[in-house]
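Researcher: We plan to redesign the surface later, but first we want a full-length starting point. Tokens attached.
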């Protein structure tokens, strides 16, 4: 057998191959549902995966989510034809009628892709998110005051329930590169009109903020932000493992209390993470910085009985060696 690369081999093929090996993202023989929007990123990813398929022996199918937005007419057929020309099975889900908001569309889309994966027995859903998406997500969350987890939230993979994973193999490839690849291979891209709408904050980050930063601050801004997200992802994973262990050692779920004497000697970064885990189960939405600080302050509180009220709903109280949570609505 020849070890020479095929004629279509490009530096992007080499990079993806290296990523897949190093990160063990898509195991040999896995069943992959490739989420194709019709845009350049997912088409580039699809072509690359098809080219690498003989080596990895994946079973690949294409999944498309039709939002049924006015500007999307014909898009689902376009993706279906692409699947046919690539000789891949095609799965389609249609959105129920409703308001065209970005957040709603995203939530529905992930549910629809998961349903397709369950029905078709796929263990990996693969998306075309790029280094550029990672940089934009970083900026978007930075502006909202996120910590390491939010800043690095576009990760290489994340669990979807059961043994299924969402995998993003192009996080070290920029949008400029996927565009160049599609042009060179003459792939039939359909631009996503929703991405042009500047009503959406994410689109303003993509179309206004990043270009501004590139022109006025640093030509490599996307790459640098994505690298920072990568570093934070590793650190976040590490800290989270330690914090989870500490949390399990300190929590008493029966009486909703935490062993504060156990937490006194650990670094502030871990205290905050443990408190966040503690509050997560009891607040109606994710605990924010103020919630976490209020309860973290109780770890060292000298006064027994000192309390912090959270959103008028919960009271955290320092007792001898513990912090307990009381639900105000039950009082
Ligand atoms: N309508 C769709 N059908 C199938 N897959 C899609 C669709 N829209 C997006 N995707 C998948 O998601 C990837 C990211 O798309 P896009 O950046 O438009 O989404 P996003 O809303 O920014 O995603 P996220 O919120 O997860 O960052 C695409 O490369 C593609 O794999």
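Model: Full-length starting sequence:
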């Amino acid at each position: 057998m020849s070890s020479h690369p095929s004629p279509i081999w490009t530096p992007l093929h080499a990079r993806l191959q290296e990523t897949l090996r190093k990160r063990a993202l898509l195991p040999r023989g896995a069943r992959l549902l490739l989420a194709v929007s019709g845009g350049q990123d997912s088409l580039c990813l699809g072509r690359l995966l098809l080219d690498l398929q003989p080596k990895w022996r994946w079973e690949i199918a294409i999944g498309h989510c039709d939002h049924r937005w006015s500007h999307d007419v014909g898009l689902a057929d376009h993706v279906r034809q692409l699947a046919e020309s690539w000789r891949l099975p095609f799965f389609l889900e249609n959105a129920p009628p409703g308001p065209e908001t970005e957040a709603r569309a995203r939530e529905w889309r992930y549910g629809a892709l998961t349903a397709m994966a369950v029905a078709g027995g796929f263990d990996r859903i693969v998306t075309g998110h790029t280094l550029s998406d990672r940089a934009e997500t970083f900026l978007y969350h930075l502006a909202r005051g996120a910590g390491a987890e939010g800043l690095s939230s576009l990760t290489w993979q994340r669990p979807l329930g059961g043994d299924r994973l969402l995998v993003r193999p192009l996080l070290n490839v920029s949008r400029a590169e996927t565009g160049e690849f599609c042009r060179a291979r003459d792939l039939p891209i359909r631009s996503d009109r929703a991405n042009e709408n500047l009503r959406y904050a994410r689109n303003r980050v993509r179309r206004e903020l990043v270009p501004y930063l590139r022109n006025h601050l640093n030509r490599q801004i996307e790459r640098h932000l994505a690298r920072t997200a990568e570093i934070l992802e590793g650190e976040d994973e590490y800290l989270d493992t330690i914090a989870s262990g500490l949390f399990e050692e300190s929590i008493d779920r029966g009486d909703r209390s935490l062993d504060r004497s156990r937490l006194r000697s650990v670094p502030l970064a871990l205290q905050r993470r443990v408190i966040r885990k503690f509050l997560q189960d009891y607040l109606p939405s994710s605990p924010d910085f103020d919630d976490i600080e209020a309860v973290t302050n109780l770890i060292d509180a000298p006064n027994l009985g000192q309390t912090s009220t959270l959103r008028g709903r919960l009271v955290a109280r320092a007792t001898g060696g513990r912090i307990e949570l009381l639900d105000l609505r039950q009082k």
